Inverse folding.
């Protein structure tokens, strides 16, 4: 499962609004802005992560990042590279715990209870380990 992405974007200063606009040619539905270049970069990074996270949840195809070397851009605009980790977004956004019924042998349940085993924690850690997700 891919969760780490790197996408190029174009950032340019809008002289009418005074804001910095960031567009992602590979993701035409994603446009963001900021008061300063740093703010625009920060907003773009957050927006990219959320946008890709929602694409994953909707089971939409996430495009490959294209080569930005030949992209047309206006004078003063620059191409920046932005990273997004949808696993981090997922962990940040979707913190709700859900019930999951499991079946284990009675003897194992009893032995675990006698030894104060935290079944839920073991299950959570085990699934994360199986998926290669750091705790």
């Amino acid at each position: 499962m891919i969760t780490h992405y790197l996408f190029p974007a174009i950032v340019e200063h809008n002289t009418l609004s005074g804001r910095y606009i960031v567009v992602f040619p590979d993701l035409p539905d994603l446009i963001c802005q900021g008061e300063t270049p740093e703010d625009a970069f920060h907003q773009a990074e957050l927006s990219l992560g959320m946008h890709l996270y929602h694409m994953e949840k909707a089971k939409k195809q996430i495009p490959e990042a294209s080569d930005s070397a030949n992209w047309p851009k206006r004078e003063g605009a620059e191409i920046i590279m932005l990273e997004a980790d949808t696993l981090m977004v997922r962990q940040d956004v979707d913190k709700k715990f859900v019930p999951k019924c499991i079946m284990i042998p009675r003897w194992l349940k009893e032995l675990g209870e006698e030894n104060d085993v935290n079944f839920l924690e073991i299950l959570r850690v085990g699934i994360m380990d199986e998926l290669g997700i750091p705790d």
Summary: The chain is about 35% helix and 20% strand.
